[in-house]
Design a protein that fits this description.
Elements (H helix, E strand, L loop, with lengths): L8 E4 L3 E7 L2 E7 L3 H9 L6 E5 L2 H9 L6 H11 L10 H17 L3 E4 L5 E2 L1
Antiparallel strand pairs: 1-5, 2-3, 3-4, 5-6
Helix pairs in contact: 3-4
């Protein structure tokens, strides 16, 4: 059964840490400490121990409102309300939803987010 991405609830990975990077912007740091990642680091010396993402204003806002209770559509509406003056008329709610889904999908694939189907078990 297909799931509507806008109905899914993103929650931050418990291993992800939020960091302030200046100018009111945020970043996220994920420590890579699984058994496989430690094994790879042992043999490939240039493998970093942490994965860091620096967000722009939009990404910082989205990251700050992800709380494990709001679904993607609610976050899209909040994003639209917050940045309505900065966005052109072409950036309607449909465009924002598409961009937000792409952004959240990237964060999910990188391991920073876990998507939940309401109260159901998480999936990746």
């Amino acid at each position: 059964m297909k799931k509507n991405f806008l109905d899914l609830v993103p929650s931050k990975n418990e291993k992800a840490q939020t960091v302030a990077i200046g100018g009111g912007r945020l970043g996220a740091v994920l420590i890579r400490d699984s058994l496989i990642e430690r094994f790879v680091r042992r043999f490939i010396k240039d493998t970093p121990r942490t994965f860091t993402v620096k967000f722009d204003d939009y990404g910082s806002f989205v990251w700050s409102v992800i709380d494990g209770r709001r679904n993607t559509l609610e976050i899209a509406h909040m994003l639209h309300e917050r940045f309505a003056d900065d966005m052109g008329e072409a950036d309607g709610i449909n465009t924002i939803c598409a961009r937000l889904c792409k952004f959240i999908g990237i964060l999910g694939r990188s391991g920073l987010l876990i998507m939940r189907d309401g109260a159901a078990k998480p999936w990746r």
